[in-house]
Write a structure and sequence with these properties.
By secondary structure, the chain is mainly α. 59% of the residues lie in helices and 0% in strands.
Length: 256
């Protein structure tokens, strides 16, 4: 049965499900797919995705590159398995009587955390829908958060896509800002506050009629006395998305 399933899946995906027969012969000190992936993740976490190569990973484990290929046939397979490995995250328990909004907030925060803890994660292009076990576990958790809502299966999947996209966008934005600061940029340069005095003179009402009052208020660089209705920029955006989902639920016929 495993052989039949393996033939229907990309090789890296089949490896993630553990349905590929492992080499029976190999180096004296046997490797494992888990060891190889852990080594690659460690390199990427410390030095970035560009530092990951089959040769580099093999050397870090004390083996030849050719011996590595016997376990994981290509770098693309390795990258997929790296993504899958760091997607094995602790998913929060759903409290009794917890509102669906709070459950979906947790989902977005967990998904966003992966991009911050493993900055290279978002550098790997998306090649299709999630079909590896840890990714599907997260989808399953999000579906559980919507249990009982008046949504059909397609609508639920669209909600997950919407929230996952928001988590990805905000996670990568925060990641990039943190990268810039670690590279030596000042927090003020990242937020724009270091340049606000100069920009207030350059962004004139004549040239930027709508942006000018925003700059003058300090809102563009986060120096405004005007507070968001809730939390920070991330929380504000997430709450507006959840508002939209709630509005959609309330607008649906009760017998749907």
């Amino acid at each position: 049965m495993d052989r039949e399933i393996e033939a229907k899946l990309p090789h890296g995906v089949a490896l993630s499900w553990g349905i590929v027969k492992q080499p029976q012969r190999g180096p004296k000190r046997e490797m494992s797919i888990e060891q190889i992936v852990d080594a690659a993740v460690s390199i990427a976490d410390k030095e970035g995705l560009a530092a990951v190569s089959m040769n580099r990973v093999a050397a870090s484990l004390g083996f030849t590159t050719m011996s590595l290929y016997r376990y994981i046939p290509s770098k693309d397979d390795l990258l997929l398995l790296m993504q899958e490995a760091v997607s094995h995250v602790d998913l929060p328990e759903k409290a009794e009587g917890e509102h669906w909004r709070e459950s979906l907030r947790k989902y977005v925060r967990v998904a966003m955390t992966v991009f911050r803890e493993h900055p290279w994660f978002g550098d790997i292009p998306i090649m299709g829908v999630p079909i590896t076990p840890n990714n599907l576990r997260m989808v399953d958790w999000a579906l559980g958060a919507m249990e009982g809502l008046c949504l059909n299966n397609s609508e639920k999947m669209s909600v997950i896509l919407l929230l996952s996209s928001y988590a990805r966008a905000t996670g990568m934005l925060v990641r990039d800002m943190e990268r810039a600061i670690r590279a030596g940029a000042s927090p003020g340069a990242v937020s724009g506050t270091d340049y606000s005095a100069a920009l207030k003179q350059l962004v004139t009402a004549e040239r930027f009629p709508h942006l000018h009052p925003v700059f003058m208020s300090g809102a563009y660089t986060g120096e405004s006395d005007e507070d968001l209705t809730i939390g920070n920029d991330f929380d504000f955006g997430l709450e507006r998305i959840l508002d939209g989902i709630e509005h959609y639920l309330n607008s649906k016929p009760s017998d749907n």
